[in-house]
């Protein structure tokens, strides 16, 4: 065991070495779709793999090759990424060192909506010894027999789970802008509405919710250009809790009124809507999560949602707004933010009596736009008095090309034809 641990601990690039070794181990253990994240990518895990059982399970692995014990600060930010996410069945911490007492207590007492495993020291070595590829990579000979009596530490999932997701599946607006030299894609203040769901899996006890809070993980003022993509609006009629996030990082703000609580019945699900008060909230870029506290069978429970990137716009922001049909386009956002001042100013001059579209418009989406470069097309119309996201347009008038952005198109433009083909088959018209 010592030779394997020593090789992992003493390597120059020991973090990357552990990831490569684990990747080979998972392949030899029969996991499929094993994928290692690119260096520098931050998605709350280092590797993802599918474990074949009664159903295919998605396992995500976080590697820690540290000299000291693993701390709460090493793991908590990774776990936060996966709260509220559907595409995870198990989270595995892979480490050459043991967890600190505080981390062990956290994982044992604060339950998550998925099981958490710890592969460390002896159990990690046992798995490496089963992998001929990993041993060859480390320069260690394959043993004749491998002891198979060890088990990982498993922290079981909670009986009550809490998740939050954008209420209308896809938002009506996304903002793209630069923050600390990185391009950010964020929800906007326009109808920012989150649906929260509590799932009580207990067959014996109700869950009494005593607190719901919104926590600001980070906050920054946004300066420079903002590129907004908007879709046509629908009708929203949710039951709402209004909230205003703090501008102070790690500050929690209560959403419930003082003394307010509610009960999630035994073996039932309850839904609630959290809506941003965009009139009172301070402009800037936020990363927020929602926190729920309560009691199940007398035990204190704390649960967290996934992270929501949120941009609240300054009224004086250097912003352009282009509409899209059917989908949002991420690939041109960086180029549009860095486009020439002449083209940027040209887009800002578009009046309120016109609706500018990026790519296809609602008129030509039936056949799709066959463009080689991104173009801004214009539809004339009358803006709605009560809704800046809506406009009455005349479908008999063609959509004119207002501006060629001269940015190569690297993704397929949305068209109704593609949607019909996907739903009904490519030869659906022959059956009519």
Characterise the protein shown here.
This protein has helices at 2-10, 14-28, 72-82, 101-109, 121-129, 132-138, 333-337, 341-348, 416-424, and strands at residues 32-36, 47-51, 57-64, 90-95, 116-120, 153-155, 160-166, 173-179, 182-188, 193-200, 207-220, 225-230, 240-243, 251-254, 262-264, 269-276, 284-296, 299-304, 308-312, 318-323, 354-358, 373-383, 391-393, 400-408. It is globular, with a radius of gyration of 26 Å. With 432 residues, the protein is of the alpha+beta class. α2 runs antiparallel to α6 (132-138). The chain folds into three domains: 2-155, Trna Endonuclease, Chain: A, domain 1 (3-Layer(aba) Sandwich), CATH 3.40.1350; 160-312, Immunoglobulin-like (Sandwich), CATH 2.60.40; 325-418, no CATH class. α3 (72-82) links the parallel β3 and β4 (90-95). The longest helix is centred in the N-terminal third of the chain and has 15 residues, at 14-28. Residues 234-238 have low confidence and may be disordered. The chain is built from nine helices and 24 strands. The strands form four sheets. Strands 8, 9, 11, 12, 14, 15, 17, 18, 19 and 20 form a ten-stranded mixed sheet that branches. The chain has a six-stranded mixed sheet with strand order 1-2-3-4-5-6, with helices on both faces.
